[in-house]
Write a structure and sequence with these properties.
It catalyses: adenylyl-molybdopterin + molybdate = Mo-molybdopterin + AMP + H(+). A hairpin with a 4-residue loop joins strand 8 and strand 9. Helix 1 packs across helix 7 and helix 4 runs parallel beside helix 7. This protein is an alpha/beta fold. The chain is 20% helix and 30% strand. The chain folds into four domains: 161 residues, Molybdenum Cofactor Biosythetic Enzyme, Chain A, CATH 3.40.980; 45 residues, Molybdopterin biosynthesis moea protein, domain 2 (Alpha-Beta Complex); 89 residues, Molybdopterin biosynthesis moea protein, domain 3 (Molybdopterin biosynthesis moeA protein, domain 3), CATH 2.170.190.11; 85 residues, Beta-clip. The structure holds ligand LQZAQKY5 and molybdate ion. The site of molybdate ion (MOO) has 7 residues, from loops.
């Protein structure tokens, strides 16, 4: 196959960074309830303490801890109850020596008190007295002012993807709108004369369009916005027109099919027909997914993903997603792990990926000189987690559906031995 300009994963990642990562990305300010999954543009400093008053974390009696020292089941301490805290109000009574104030969970800690005894360790003793059966340590059952978040603290870093818990931090601080990076606009173009829309029954020789759905899903899961997902025939002019339209409103164009060097594989020729275009790579030293085109038209990054559904997904995960993350301002982690062993890889996982360590259930072969991606299913066997290779042709979509994740075998590695610990990057 006459692919030229074949680059390794490390090389293409570097080229992509050099070509596309510019300094400032567009931002927008959104109400907090629309910011889930978006990437915070700037560091956020707490303007107040959370909580901004000391609170009880249990239902019980606010006390001075030293008044309870030595209290036990057989020799309780006795305290006078001088009041009760109302939720949503500051404590109306201070606690002095020998006194206690009832406080519900989350209620304000009265002045003078430094601990709360849980109600189950007390007993009413008549005449406004309680018996305390257990000693309390200072600050026991108390969340002090600023314990959760301290004023002046950098609570969130720019580049953080906002998960539900980050929205929680922002709400605790009363931040009701946030500045986030604008999502990347993406066009998904699936090519092939044999591909039919999924509502059609394919005739012999035809197949339904899988890639539009898998690639759209991958883009959306990575925080991008799909402007269009269209099917295009294997026709130079039709493909050129589709790409011309896509680059008017997209930051990233993802073609699939036609990236090889067959007679009707137009991707590379169409890209080259645009002014100010550049082929960064045609062919990657990656398995699967070797016939990939990586290019630039103006400031738009254009990928010709392999037509095989599993390969197209894999190339997206390995090459496109790290770029997409970078371009949307996600945390400045390195785009590629330089790791040569799995131990190192475990320490430098790629962007926004989650991984687990597991033992390889069998020997896994690798393609010499290429980065090999091996799909695996995870299985628990007698309390140990195993990565079981999922084998099949890269045209099989069920292969991806059976896989929980994949392992990345570096070009210098010969393969994986049975029982060797591997890092499984989860889908
Ligand atoms: N002589 C050689 N032929 C091929 C080589 C090679 O090294 N030498 N590499 C093979 C590999 S590996 C791949 S991957 C494919 C990639 O080729 P293309 O990117 O040009 O893709 P197509 O030929 O158009 O399609 C390949 C395959 O995928 C199916 N396909 C395409 N689009 C979709 C879609 N949207 N939904 C579902 N399936 C799709 C298509 O029907 C083909 O079966 O090249 C090999 N050939
Ligand atoms: O490399 Mo192809 O992308 O195996 O299917």
């Amino acid at each position: 196959m006459d692919l030229f300009n074949v680059l390794t994963l490390t090389e293409i990642t570097k080229r992509l960074e050099d070509t596309f990562i510019s300094s400032l990305l567009p931002t927008e300010t959104l109400p907090l309830n629309q910011a889930l999954g978006r990437i915070l543009a700037d560091d956020l400093t707490a303007a107040e303490d959370v909580p901004h008053f000391s609170r009880s974390v249990v239902d019980g009696y606010a006390v001075r801890a030293k008044d309870t020292f030595g209290a036990s089941e057989s020799i309780p301490g006795f305290l006078s109850v001088v009041g009760a805290v109302e939720m949503g109000h500051p404590a109306a009574h201070a606690v002095r020596a020998g006194e206690a104030v009832y406080v519900p969970t989350g209620g304000a800690l009265p002045e003078g008190a430094d601990a709360v005894v849980m109600i189950e360790y007390t007993e009413p003793f008549g005449a406004g007295q309680i018996a305390v059966h257990r000693p309390s340590a200072p600050l026991e059952n108390v969340m002090s002012k600023g314990d959760d978040i301290t004023v002046g603290e950098t609570v969130l870093r720019g580049g953080t993807r906002l998960r539900p818990q980050e929205l929680g931090v922002l709400s605790a601080l009363g931040v009701n709108s946030v500045t986030v990076f604008a999502p990347l606009q993406v066009s998904v173009l699936s090519t092939g004369d044999e591909i039919v829309p999924i509502h059609e029954k394919p005739a012999a020789g035809q197949i339904r369009d899988i890639n539009s759905y898998t690639i759209t899903g991958l883009v959306e899961a990575a925080g991008g916005r799909v402007r269009r997902a269209s099917l295009v025939k294997d026709d130079f002019d039709a493909l050129k027109a589709a790409v011309a339209e896509a680059i008017t409103d997209s930051d990233l164009v993802l073609l699939s099919g036609g990236s090889s060097v067959g007679e009707k594989d137009y991707t590379q020729r169409v890209i080259q027909a645009f002014e100010d275009s550049e082929i960064l790579a045609h062919g990657l030293a990656i398995k699967p997914g070797k016939p990939t085109v990586v290019a630039r038209i103006g400031r738009v990054s254009v990928f010709g993903l392999p037509g095989q559904p599993a390969s197209a997904m894999m190339i997206f995960k390995a090459v496109v997603e790290p770029l997409l993350q970078k371009l949307t301002g996600a945390n400045a982690l390195p785009m590629v792990s330089q790791a040569t062993t799995n131990q190192e890889a475990a320490l430098s996982p790629s962007l926004s990926t989650r991984s687990v360590l597991a033992a390889a259930s069998s020997k896994i072969h690798a393609a010499p000189g290429r980065t090999t991606f091996q799909m695996v299913a995870l299985e628990m066997r007698s309390g140990e987690l195993f990565a079981v290779p999922v084998h099949g042709k890269s045209g099989m979509i069920s292969l991806m559906s059976r896989a929980d994740g994949y392992i990345q075998i570096e070009p210098a590695q010969e393969g994986i031995l049975q029982n060797q610990t591997v890092q499984v990057i989860l889908f």
